[in-house]
Specification:
Order of helices and strands: HHHHH
Number of strands: 0
Helix content: 55-70%
Shape: elongated
Mean pLDDT: 79
Low-confidence stretches: none
CATH class: Mainly Alpha
Number of helices: 5
Oligomer: single chain
CATH architecture: Orthogonal Bundle
């Protein structure tokens, strides 16, 4: 994994540098900045963990998207889950799950608003 991939994966999940440092590498934010700037090599366990988090994000997003699409009401309002539907297995810090959940919810909201804009522009 290179520094650009690391930064893109962090941003995909809407993690701040501090959140990524705490949840993924159990380091301080400054150390995470060193990874992303290329000033320090990215440890293999950090690369594995952020890849795993990205897979959890994708899985959670797919499950939520399907659920949200089922729950759109007659006014076109989507109800997005406020808590994670399923927690990933393994030893995952609660903050990490909450961060991933919030990233998924944020992306669903963006997608939903973009869909509304497309429909309004077609009218």
């Amino acid at each position: 994994m290179n520094k650009t991939e690391l930064k893109l994966m962090r941003k995909l999940m809407f993690f701040s540098v501090a959140d990524a440092a705490e949840c993924i590498s159990q380091t301080r934010a400054r150390q995470w900045q060193r990874y992303e700037s290329g000033d320090a090599p990215i440890p293999a366990d950090v690369a594995e963990k952020i890849t795993w988090f990205t897979e959890v994000y994708t899985s959670m997003f797919d499950a939520y998207e399907e659920e949200v699409n089922k729950q759109i009401d007659e006014n076109g309002i989507a109800y997005i889950p406020l808590v994670p539907a399923e927690l990933p297995s393994g030893d995952v810090p609660r903050l990490a799950v909450e961060c991933i959940h919030q990233a998924v919810v944020a992306q669903l909201k963006v997608d939903y608003l973009q869909d509304l804009e497309i429909v309004e522009n077609q009218s």
